[in-house]
Design goal:
Helices cover 27% and strands 16% of the residues. The chain is α/β, with parallel strands linked by helices. The chain has two domains: 51 residues, no CATH class; 145 residues, SPOUT methyltransferase, trefoil knot domain (Alpha/beta knot). It has a seven-stranded parallel β-sheet, with helices on one face. Helix 2 links the parallel strand 1 and strand 2. The longest helix has 24 residues. It starts with a helix and ends with a helix. 26% of the residues are buried.
Length: 205
């Protein structure tokens, strides 16, 4: 007689292979292949069939240059968690826990506080200034780098030439009026996710 826990694990593996119970983060309507059950093991999946195995390489990191207050930083943390950003770097004011970080993302994403955002830029990562300045490229036409470090300035000012001159790319979001910091981060990360997701789908086709 098998132990009860073993019986339950085997039952769940069978149900997952039949698409009868959802895997976290995968729609209930997904097929067994979508769920990562091309090749089943006793645990329900093997490494080769894991949904993670097909993830596009690369990452997005966020740099905040002199953010105004904790409310803004907390909202950026929430956006970063929603879109899967890998890192947040902030210079200037030190962050204290904010109610706008509703997901408690500071427990899940590294938040590095430093004197200069460039002190913590990841290796082989492209610095991208996001600012409404002359010569910036529209986000609508921008092709995101595989590894990007998006740098955002304070709501009441620009990044400044010292920061912008160290960035390979400079982009802006075409709008009729200025957006707040968190809204800008949300738009940039969504645009990245949408375009890179489409690029990955085209590659698979």
């Amino acid at each position: 007689m098998k132990p009860r826990l073993v019986q339950l694990a085997e039952r769940d593996a069978r149900r997952q292979s039949e698409g009868r119970i959802p895997v976290a983060g995968i729609p209930r309507s997904a097929t067994p292949r979508d769920r990562g059950f091309d090749s089943l093991t006793a645990c329900g999946r093997d490494i080769g069939s894991s949904p993670v195995a097909g993830v596009v390489r690369g990452f997005a990191a966020i740099g905040l240059h002199r953010p105004k207050n904790n409310v803004n930083v907390g909202a950026v943390l929430r956006a970063a968690w929603c879109y899967g950003a890998a890192l947040i770097v902030a210079d200037g004011t030190r962050y204290r826990k904010s109610r706008t970080d509703t997901h408690k993302a500071h427990r899940k994403i590294p938040l590095v506080q430093t004197g200069d955002v460039f002190d913590a830029i990841p290796y082989d990562c492209v610095p991208v200034a996001v600012d409404l300045v002359e010569g910036a490229q529209s986000l609508f036409d921008y092709e995101h780098p595989e590894r990007a470090f998006y740098i955002f300035g304070p709501e009441d000012g620009t990044l400044g030439a010292k920061t912008i001159d160290r960035c390979r790319d400079v982009v802006y979001i075409p709008t009729q009026a200025c957006m707040n910091l968190a809204a800008t981060v949300n738009v940039v990360l969504y645009d990245r996710a949408n375009k890179r997701g489409q690029k990955n789908r085209n590659t698979e086709d």
